[in-house]
What we know:
The structure holds two protein chains of two kinds. Chain A is globular, with a radius of gyration of 23 Å. By secondary structure, chain A is mainly α. Chain A has helices at residues 2-32, 42-51, 53-87, 89-104, 111-118, 122-145, 150-158, 163-200, 206-215, 219-246. Chain B is mainly alpha-helical. Chain B is flat, with a radius of gyration of 23 Å. The two termini of chain B are 38 Å apart.
Amino acid sequence: MNFKRINFKRFLPVAISLLVLIGLWQGAIAAFEIPPFVLPSLPAILKHAVSEFKPLSASLGATLLEAASGYVLGALCGLLLAMAMVLVTPLERGLMPLCVAINSVPIVAYTPLCLIWFGMGPASKIVLIALAVGFTILVNALHGLKLPEEAAVNLMRSFGASPVGIMRRLRLPAAMPSVVSGLRVAVPRSMIVAIVGEMLGAYKGLGRVIYESTQQVNLLNVWAAVLFASLASMLLYGLLVWVDRKLVWWR
Amino acid sequence: MSTAATGISMAAGARAFLRSPLFAALALALVWELAVQAFRISPRYLPALSAVLRDAWSIWPQLLASFNRTLLETLLGFAAGAAFGCLCGITFSYVRLMERAVFPLFVVSQTVPVVAFGALIVIWFGNSLLAKVVTAFFLTFFPVTVNTLHGLASCDPQRIALMRSFGAKGPTMFFKLALPSALPQILVGLRLGIGLSLVGSIVGEWFGETLGLGVMLIEAMNSDQIVRIWVVIVACGLMGALLYSALTLIERKIIWWRAEA
C-alpha cells in the first residue's frame, strides 16, 4: 500500500511534465501550422510506427545484436585489461599513454577506418562499440581496483595472500560499484555508437534506416526509427538499473 | 656544491619531463613511426606518422580551416550546453518539484541517440553553424546538469548549519558555500561535456556541410584515402587533448582551495 503511494507521488510530476510536453508539441503544430516535414504530429508518428512495425523491429533487432555483442566484448576486455594493469604495474605505465591517446580521439572519428578494415557488415560496428564500451569500463575499473588502501593490501599480503588472491577477495569487490556505474553509462553509449556506425555504412539496422529515410526525405520513418531506438535504449537502461538494484551483494 | 645542486634540479627537471604528457606524446609518436618501419605494417592498416604528417602538410590550409571551424562549433555548443546545464542543475537542486518533474525526462532524453536527430536538426536550423552548435549543445548539457546537481547536493550539512547560525541568507549561502563546494564536481561534468561536444559537432557536420573535420572524414572515407582519415583522426585527437587540457588548466587556476582531485 505504502509502496504504491510512493510510486504514485514520484510518477505524477513526471506524467504531468510529459503531458505538458505533448501538449506543447501538438499545440505548436496547431497554432503555428507547422508543416509535417518540419515536425510531424505525434499520432502520425505512432501510426507510422505501428504500420511499419515489422521492418522497423527487424532493423532494431540487427542494431541490438551488434550493440549487445560489442557491449559484452568491450566490457570483458576493459575489465581484464584493468586487472592486468593492476597486477602488472609496468603494463599500466606502458599502455596507459597509448590508451589515453586512442581515447582522446572521439570514437566517431574511427568509424570510417573501422568500415574500411572490417567491412560493411556487423563486425565493424561490434569493434567500434567494444572500443567505446571497453574504455569506459577500463577507466572505471582501474579507478575502482585501486580504491583499497595500501594498508589493507599489505595486511593481506602479510597473511600470505597472492596478488591474484588480493585481486579476487579485496580489489574486485571494492571495484564493483565503480564498474557497475561504468556499465550503466555504457548502455546508451553502445546504442549510439551502433547507430552512428550504421549511418555511415551498413546493410541493415536502425542507423541505416535513419540515414536512408533522411536521403529520401521520408521523415515519418526517421521519427519512427528514432522512437524505436529510444524505447529500446530506455528499456535496456531500465533493465540495468533493475539488475543493479537486485544485485547489490557487494554493499 | 652549486654544481651538485644544479645536477639535482636538472635531474628533477628531467624526471618531471619524463612524467609530462608532452613526453608521453613524443614517445608515442616515436613508437608509432618505428613500429610501422620495423614491422612493415601495411599503410592500409596503419600508415607511418611521417606519411600522415606529409599528407597533412599537403592540405594544410584546408585542414587548418576545417580545424578552426570544428573548434568554433565545439566551443559554442559547449558554452551553451555548460551554461544551460549549470542553470538546470541549480534549478533542480533548489526546486524539488522541478527535479521530480523534469529530471527523469532529461535522463530519458539522453538515452535517445542524438545523432539520429542530426538530420532533423539540419532541417530545422538549415545547413548552418547553428545546426552543429545545437547538436553539440544537446550532448553537452546533460553531464553538466547531473554533476551540478550532485555537487550542490553533496554540500556538508554541518557547514550549512554553521553558516546559518551566523545568519547567512540564501544568496550568501549559495555564492560562499554551495557553489564553491560544488565547483570541483561541476568541472567533472564540464570535462565529460567537452569531449561529447566535439563528437556532436563532428557528427553534426556529416549531415551536410562543406567545411570541418567531420566533412573531411566523410570525404576521405568515400575516396578510400586511409592516410587522410588518419590525418583527421590525429587532428580530432589533438583538438580533444587541447580542449581537455585547457579545462584542466582553468580548473587548477580557479579551484585553488582543492589542490588535488
